[in-house]
Each structure stands twice: as C-alpha cells, then as structure tokens.
Amino acid sequence: MNLRWLNALLWGNSVALAWMWGLGLFFSVQISFMFGMNGLLMFAIPNAFGLMLFGVLTEMVAKRHPGGNESLALFFDKFAKPFRLIFYIYQIVALSLTVFALVKYLFVPLLGTIEGFNGNGVVALAVTMTVFVLLAVGCLFGEEFGIRKIKAGHALLGGLLFICILVVLFSLGGTSIGKGSEGLGMENGYTYNRFWGLAVPLFVGLLFGPWLDLQHWQRAIQIHREKTSIRLSYIFGGLIFFCLLIFHGYLAMWVMGNAKDSFALATSKLDDLVYGHHIVVQYFSSGFSGNSWIPAAYFGFLVISILTTLDSGYVSLKWFLEKNVEKSENMLLSIIPKQIVSSPIPTFLIVAVVTLIGYFAKFELEYFMVFFASFFVGYAALAIARCFVPNSQQPLPQIRMFSMACLCLVIFAFGYMVDQNALMYVGSLLPLVYVVWLVTTTDLLRLVTEKAGEVMDAAAEIPAIKAIAKTEQPARTEVAAPVSGGTHDVAGHFEGKWFVYSMIATYQDTNSVGNVYFGMYPLYVGKTRELFFNAAMPDFDLKSTKFYILTRSFEHKFVRETREFDTITVKIKVKETNRKFCTLEHQIFGSEGQLLGKGQQSLLFVSSKDYGLLDIPPEVYTAFIKYL
Fold it and tell me: How confident is the model at residue 331 (pLDDT cuts 50, 70, 90)?
C-alpha cells in the first residue's frame, strides 16, 4: 500500500509538470497583473480542480469496463476513434502555445539584454533558432524517457524545480507583495467587467481542458496498468499544480508591489490591451541586483516547466500516432513510410511553423487561449458524456460539431476584442448547450428506435400479420434475387461494387424442424467470398503465392429464417481497408428479396514462408480498390 501511495505521488508530480505548459506558466503572471490575488485564484482553482476531476472520472471509467489492468486502454481505443483529429489539433495548439510563450516572454526579453541584439534580421534568426532548439530538446527528452520511465525523469526534474523555487522564495526575504495583490490592470484599462468576462470562459475551458489532452489519457492508462489509483495520482497532481500556479502568481505580485519601475509594459497593436506576461522575466534579467544564482533559479523554473510539457507531448504523440497508423483506413497514409507518419517530428515541425507565425504576427498568449475557451469546449464536453452515456460509440456528427466549434470561436474572439462579456459567455457556453441537446436527442432517438424494432419483431410473429405479409410485394433491394426455377450464374456476378452469388437450400442444409441450420449461413458467405476472390484476382496461384489470406474475425446478425428449396442470395463487397487489414461486408437475402442476415469479416495477410504478418499486398490493393 505504501509503494502504491509513493507511486501515486510520483505520477502526481509528472501530471503537474506536464500540465505546467505555456498557459499555466505565463497566464498566471498575466492574470495576477490584471486582477491580483482574486484573478490568480480564479485561474488556479478551476485549473487544479479540472485535473482532479479528470482523475476521479477516468478511474470510474476504468472500473466500469472489463479488461482488468487494460480496461482503460481498451476503452480508449474505441472511445478515441471519432475524436482522433481533435486530439491531434489540440496537441498542436497546446504545444505551439507553450513554445510561443517561452520564446516571446522569456528568451526574447533575455536576448534583448545582449549587446548587438537588434535589427529585424538578427531577431528573426535568433527566434527561429530558439524555437527549433526547444523542440529538439523536447524530442530528445521524449525519446530518452518514454511513458514507463517518464515519472522517474520528472521526479528528478521536479526535485530541481523545487530547489529553484526555494532559492527564489528565500531571495524575497519575506517582503510583502503590498498592492501587487490588487494587480496593475486597473491602471491600464482592465476593469472588473473584464474580470467577470473572463471568469466564465476560464472556468469552462479549464474544467474540461484535460479531456482532450493525450498526455493525460496516456498517463491515466499507464497508472491503471501499474495498479495505482488514478484518482489519488491526479489529486496529488492537482495539488502540486495549484502550488506551482500560486508560486508564479505570487512572484508576479511581489514584483509589481516592490519593483514597479523595473519593468516596462507592452501594448498590443491588435487589441490595444496592455500585457504583462514578461514582467517577472524582465525584472530578473535587468532589474535585479544581487546573487546571480537567483535569476538562474527563476529561469531554470521556467525552462524545466516547459521541457516537461514538451517531452510529455512527444511521448503522447508517438503513442497516439503509432496506434492510429496501425489501424488507419486511409489508403493515402499507406503510401507514406510508416516511420514518417508515426513519428512526432513532422508534428513538431508544424508546431514550429505555427509558433513562428504567431510570434511574427505579434500575437499574445490569449489569442491561443481562445481555442480552449470556445473551440474545444464542445468536443471535451461530448467526450465526457460519451464516457458515461450509453451507446457512446455512435458516429459523431463531425460537420455539425466542427461548424459549431468554429462559430463559437469567432463569437468569443470578437467578444474578447470588443470587451463584450455577453459574446464571450455565448462563445463558451453555447457548445455545452449544443452537446446537451445532441446527447439527449440522440439517446432518445436510439431508445425509440430500439423499442420500435422490438415491437415490429414481436408483431411479425403474429399469425394474422404473417399472412398479410405474404401477400405483400417484396421490398426492393440492391440485389435482384433470382426467380425460383430461373437461370443461375454458377460463378457469381457483380452488381456495381457488390459480388452476388445465389444457391438453393436443400435438405442437408436444414435442421430437425425444417429451417436452414444457422451454421450454414457462414458457409454460404465463405463460398461467396472464395468466388469473389477468384473473380477479383483470377491470376492468384496458391502454389506460387507469396502471401496467404486469413480470416481475423467474422460477425453475422441473423434477421429471418428460410427453408428447404428457398433461393439464398449472398452479396459481398469490400467495406474498408487499412495498412494491415481488410474488412468485407456481406448481406444474405431469401427467395422474395427479404433480408435474412448481414455482417462483416476482417482479413489479414501473412507470409507464405513463415506466416509473419504483412501489410496488404499491392496486388490485393489493385484487385480490391475498384470494389471499395
């Protein structure tokens, strides 16, 4: 029990450091600059509580699903499928924000103190090099640790971080923060109207934020695998993270209260607002006279906080990309070498481009934050709902969700620029309202459909309805079932993308009561599949082939029964493919065109020499692509 407690503490430390990204690191200074202690608490409390809530709820999910130590991993494989693009975009925005913040608010002020650091060319070169150095170090740390060793690496970095904090705190000498607790925003155009305008979006965005962060999902899965409490780990993580935010905000208020003349404020040309993310950096880099270890300790605190986010981002992206490339159904991705597609390095290059665009366009941290207060809110809320609402794996309304997210993003951004709280509230809360409507109506529709299906199935067994049904015309389908006693294509034929084969059930196919035995239907599908292969790949030779086609899984849903001498028509087509597997879909019809059953099967491909798993062979792609 003690070891589990210690393991939870180590994971809590890693959780806190991974969440100490650009948003938590530098906005804690800005919110303290604007509103003092009230603003800092408004930012820190929901931020830490959101972390704790994620741990509590994911542990509930892990316990509710089967699979033992792998239950959360198995759940995430299914749960994440419709959110894959949003998970990826979230990581790009989060990492870009982090690198952007460190470059703009730490390295640029520091480089500005170096003699000769002037001129647009020198600045552009220095900023570009800094961005790539940060990302390279993040890649290096990520490759070195991995998810199994990252808590140990973060324990070491967390110890160094604690030492840096102690050095800085002792340097303050117990000096009071004075009026810094009220912030300087009131003197620079910020009012409590903007305070309340930010309160709701910050609360919503920070509370739901962890649910789209791959770093936290990967940690929760690994914590559960190690038989450690996810809940306890994230409670520790939330408390440590809260203390880090309070430390940095307190430091900003101390600088404002004791060294107001040691820093210069920056006014954005895009919104005319005054920003102070850099005031502590500026103070320690130029306005501090004393022991040189103290500025180094503070800068070390910033760098460690960022690096523990970048290495976590690299590890989680590698895990996520490798998992999805293996299961990808996109044929274009199969053309690109797997090592490139599954590597986080191309994504880090995208992060570098986004960061540089943001810097040279003179963005501020808040412009990236808009995404977390509006665009991602709906997706995060829907992710939580799908963890606990039944039938959670139904297809997402991707276009509607994306359109709503973009609409809310624009509304919130406009409200921020013109200081209209109502628009900011709409941009943050409208996604939640839409998700509530979406979940309730979808679940209600599902319930009505299921009950209607049960009623119809029960009614179909009533003798009077059966008699009436026999006089009705058969429903039209995509397959024209052969007329009893008509001609028969012994090799099957294609109807569009469907391969169709018909046969007549005989006595040997039936059971003791005269119905076709249930085990015959897979045999009918198997026979049709072999004829489809023969038609699609007529040159395939079993004696000289370099690969075999094996069945990975088979699913079939029985809908109706049929009897001796009824005509059975099976149709089959390629449903989807990815790098390794191919899925075939089938449907079975009776003499009158009524659906008897449907299902699908997954195929895999192995070497004819050693039965090693292969990517789908090119000749199979060539043969199957026209029927996809």
Answer: low
